[in-house]
Amino acid sequence: MLFHVRMDVRLPADLDPGERDALLAREKAYSQELQRDGRWPHIWRIAGEYANFSVFDVESGDELHQLISGLPLFPYMDIHVTPLATHPSDIRA
Amino acid sequence: MLFHVRMDVRLPADLDPGERDALLAREKAYSQELQRDGRWPHIWRIAGEYANFSVFDVESGDELHQLISGLPLFPYMDIHVTPLATHPSDIRA
Amino acid sequence: MLFHVRMDVRLPADLDPGERDALLAREKAYSQELQRDGRWPHIWRIAGEYANFSVFDVESGDELHQLISGLPLFPYMDIHVTPLATHPSDIRA
Amino acid sequence: MLFHVRMDVRLPADLDPGERDALLAREKAYSQELQRDGRWPHIWRIAGEYANFSVFDVESGDELHQLISGLPLFPYMDIHVTPLATHPSDIRA
Amino acid sequence: MLFHVRMDVRLPADLDPGERDALLAREKAYSQELQRDGRWPHIWRIAGEYANFSVFDVESGDELHQLISGLPLFPYMDIHVTPLATHPSDIRA
Amino acid sequence: MLFHVRMDVRLPADLDPGERDALLAREKAYSQELQRDGRWPHIWRIAGEYANFSVFDVESGDELHQLISGLPLFPYMDIHVTPLATHPSDIRA
Amino acid sequence: MLFHVRMDVRLPADLDPGERDALLAREKAYSQELQRDGRWPHIWRIAGEYANFSVFDVESGDELHQLISGLPLFPYMDIHVTPLATHPSDIRA
Amino acid sequence: MLFHVRMDVRLPADLDPGERDALLAREKAYSQELQRDGRWPHIWRIAGEYANFSVFDVESGDELHQLISGLPLFPYMDIHVTPLATHPSDIRA
Amino acid sequence: MLFHVRMDVRLPADLDPGERDALLAREKAYSQELQRDGRWPHIWRIAGEYANFSVFDVESGDELHQLISGLPLFPYMDIHVTPLATHPSDIRA
Amino acid sequence: MLFHVRMDVRLPADLDPGERDALLAREKAYSQELQRDGRWPHIWRIAGEYANFSVFDVESGDELHQLISGLPLFPYMDIHVTPLATHPSDIRA
C-alpha cells in the first residue's frame, strides 16, 4: 500500500563537512536503491526548503518503519507519514 | 512545473442529496479530464479523511489557479499548494 | 496492518432527536460488527470529550478508508489516522 | 483505569553510542517488566517516527506519573497523556 | 484521583432566552450538587472568557466521563482533560 | 486575587547532577514557604510530564511576577499565567 | 492592577442592520464610560482587523470579568486576557 | 510606509449570486481605484486559494485601517497585516 | 504612528553573569532613552514570563526597525509587531 | 512565474563576528545580483524581526530551489514559499 511521507532535514550547523558529505552520499545511495526496487516510487524536493515529499509503496507499517528508520539521515529528520488510499476519481485505479 | 496540493472537502451537512450527487459527478469528470491531458498526474485519497493529496503539472501559477478555482467543489474546499522541485536523489531526474 | 485513529464527533445542535438516536444506533451496530470480525480491535472514549481513540486492523489503506468512510457518523466527524508498526520492546511481537 | 500516552524520543545527536545502547537496553527491560505485570498493556511504534502510542492500566495519576517518570528515557522524551473511559459501543465492555 | 478540566462554552447566538436561562439553571444545579458531594472540588471562571478551569476528584475515567457528559451544557462546550498527580513539593501531600 | 499558572520545566540534559539536586532542593524550599504563607494554595503535577498546574493567591500582577521570577527554576521554565475570577456556580463563593 | 486584553469581534453576517447599529452604539457608550472612570485606560484598533488591544486597570479578576462580560458585544467576541506587571525599565514606575 | 497584507475571503455558500456579483464588482472597483492612486501598489492571488497577498503604501495605521475596513468584502475576510521596512540589501533603497 | 510589540527574551543559560549584567544594563539605558524622547510610550512586563508588551510611537516602519534592531537584547529576543490605529470609541481620539 | 517567500534568519549567538560579517557580505552580494538580473524583484524587511518577505520571478520550481538553496544564509534560515498568480483586480495584469 501507499504512504505519503514528509521529511524535513535538520543537519547540525557544526557537522564536519567530510562527515556531512559521506552521510549525504549514503543517503542518496540508500534512497536510489529503494527507488529502483519500486518501494520509493516518488520523491520531490519542496522548493526552497531542505525537505521532501515522498510516496512509499510497501506491504505494511512494519516494512515502512524499517525502511524509514534505516535512512542514514533518520536521526536528523522530522518525519510525518500519512496513509493513502485509491481516489475514486483516479483514472488509473 | 509540479505543484503538490492538499484539498480538504467541507460539504454542508444539509446539501440536497441530488445537488450533491450532481456536484460530485461534475467534479469527477473535471478531474478525470485533467488527469487524461496530463496536467493532474497524481491524486490519492488521504485514508480516513474526505481529503486528497494531488500533484499538478502546469506551466505557471496562473494556469494552476485557473484549474483549481474551476473545480466544481472549489467553494467547499480548503486548499494548500506547495511548489515542488526535482530532488537530487531522484533516479528519474 | 494496524492504524491508530482519532475520531471527534461534531453533531449539529439542531439535529432532530429521533434522527440522532437512529444515527447513533446505526453507528453502534456498524462499529460492533467490525469489532466482532476483528477489524476494529480497540475503541476507547476520550474521557470528557465526544471523541474516541481506536485501532483498526486491515489489509490496506483502501480497506481502511472503505470502513471509515462507511461510518454512519462519518459526515459529522473529524478523523485523523496514524499508521502503526510493531514496537521493538513489545513482548507480544 | 486506562491512559493513552504518546511518547516522542529526542536523543541528543552527540550521545555516546555505548551510553545510548545501555540506555535503550534499560528502557526495554523497564518497559517489558511493566508489560508483563499488566500495567502497560499496549505499545505501538508510530510508523516512520521515533515515537510510540501506549496504553497504561494503573490505579491512579500518581501511579501513572511514577511509572512514566521512572522511564530511563524520560529526560529525553516529550510525553502527552490522555485519560480514557469505556466506549459505549465497545463489545468487551 | 484528580483531573484538571478546561471547559469553553459556545452557546449559539440565536438560542431562545428562556431556553438559555433554563439550561444555565440546570447547569448550575448539576455543578453545585457535584461540588457538594466532593467530586468537583474546584471551579474558577477564566477572567474575561466564557470558560472555566475545574478540578474533579473521581474514582476513574469512566466516572469522570459520566459526570462531564451529563452536564446540561455538554453539547455546547469544548472540553479538555489533563490527569493530575501529587506534586513532590506539595506540603499537603 | 487568584492566578492559574502552568509551568513546564526544561532542565538541560548535561546539567551537573550535584548542581541539579541543589537547584531542586532550593525550588522545593521556595515553593513550600509560599504554600505555607498562603500565596501558593495549589500545586499539582501534570501526570506523565515534567510540569505543574498551580494556583497563586496574591495582591497584584507585580507580586505575582516577583514570586514567579524568583523561582530557582525560573530560567529553565516555560510559564503561562491565566487570571481567574469567581465562578457564579461556585458554592464557596 | 493592569490587564492586557485582545478582543476579536465576530458579528454574524446576517445581523439586522438596525440591531447592529444599536449594539455598536451601546458598546461605545459602555466603553467610554469605563474609559472616563479610569478603568479602561487604553484602547487601540488593530490595523486592518475588527479587533482591539486594550489595557484595563481594575482591583481584581472578579472586577475585570464583570466589566468584560458586561460588554454588549461580549457574546460576539473572542477575548484573551494577559496579566501585566511593572517593567523594571519603565521610567514611570 | 509599506504594509504587507494577507486577505482570505470566506463568502457564505448560500450568498445570492446576484448579490455576490455586485459585491465582487464593487470590490474590484474599490481596489483598482487604490491601485491607481498608488496606495495599493501590489496585489497577487495566492495560487489555488481564495486569498491574496497585497502591499499597501500609506501614511499611517489610521489610513491603512480606513482603506481596509472600507473594502466591500471586509465583513467576509480574515486579514493579517505585517509592517514592512527597507531591507538593507534592497538595490532600490 | 503606533505599533504594538511583544518581546520574549531567550537568554542562553550559560551566559557569563558579568556579560549578562552588562547586557541588561545597556538594554535598560537604551529603553529609557527611547521612553524619555517619547518613542517608546508604554512598556509592561507580562506577569510570570520573561517578556514584555510595548507600544512604540514612530514615523515609519524603517524607524521602528532601526529602534528595535538596535536593542542590545535583539539577538536574544523573539519579537512580533502589530500596527495600531485609532479606535473609534477612544475618548482621547 | 512569481513566488512569495518568507525567510527567517536564525544565526547562532556564538558565531564568530568576522565569519558573520563575511557571511552577511556574501549574502548581500548574492541577493543584489539576483535583484539586478530581475529574478528577485522585491525584498522587504519585516519590521522588528530578523526576517524578510521577498518575491522571486523564475521559470520553474527547480530554478527557485537552486537560487534559494544557494543563499549563503540558507543553512541558517527557515523558509516558506507560496506560489502566486495574477489577481483578477490587478490593474497591471
Automatic annotation (TrEMBL), chains A, B, C, D, E, F, G, H, I, J:
Belongs to the muconolactone Delta-isomerase family. This is Muconolactone Delta-isomerase. Keywords: Aromatic hydrocarbons catabolism, Isomerase. It catalyses: (S)-muconolactone = (4,5-dihydro-5-oxofuran-2-yl)-acetate. One of its GO terms (biological process) is beta-ketoadipate pathway. One of its GO terms (molecular function) is muconolactone delta-isomerase activity. The lineage of its organism: Bacteria, Bacillati, Actinomycetota, Actinomycetes, Micrococcales. It comes from Barrientosiimonas humi. Pfam families: MIase (PF02426). It is an enzyme of class 5 (isomerase). The keyword Isomerase applies. Homodecamer.
